[in-house]
Amino acid sequence: MGLFFRHNINDFTRLAIWKIEEDESFFLNSVPSARDISHPHKRLQHLAGRFLLKYLFPDFPSEEIEIADTKKPYLLNEQYHFSISHGGGYAAAIVSERNRVGIDIELFAEKIKRISHKFLDEDEMDLVEDSMGGQNLQMLTTFWSVKESVFKWWSYGNISLKDNIKIRNMEEDPDQIVHVDFLRGGNEFPLQVSFRLFDEMVLCWLVEQ
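-> structure tokens emitted (209 positions)
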């Protein structure tokens, strides 16, 4: 199928989801190989994510990607800021010429209900119930994905999804935005995370303002 979803956020920031139905040779025509990844499906996900970077910006220098100690990929000269996510048979990427970014995709799965207490506090759980009623699978997955996108935007590690990333409220229609406070060093930094729901998954992304 290839391209599943594309969104040009502005003139210098773009994102896309790719549904992976090709074999490795398709992606290796555009991006470096991933010999250090032994699992075939994970390697395919990796290649699809790197492929999307060049799909969004054809001059993206994939061969210059470095990996930080936190396992975040980055470019030394920060020609582009980018973030990649994988889930099942999908890969997603966001790239910006100007702003730090974070992206996450999550497939809906019942197990999220069993671990919700690990990443949501009482106020956030109340927000889930007030918004959708009960342990709504889509809402819980969206909140998890929101926090993961903030975690990837932050990129330095050493933060707790439950304690450092607080969801305050959300706008479901028409903007589909979640308002978040990022707590670090005794300070609060307000952030806006956008989201889009699909039949089997949610996509969340953050562009630093």
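Helices lie at 24-28, 40-56, 112-119, 122-132, 137-154.
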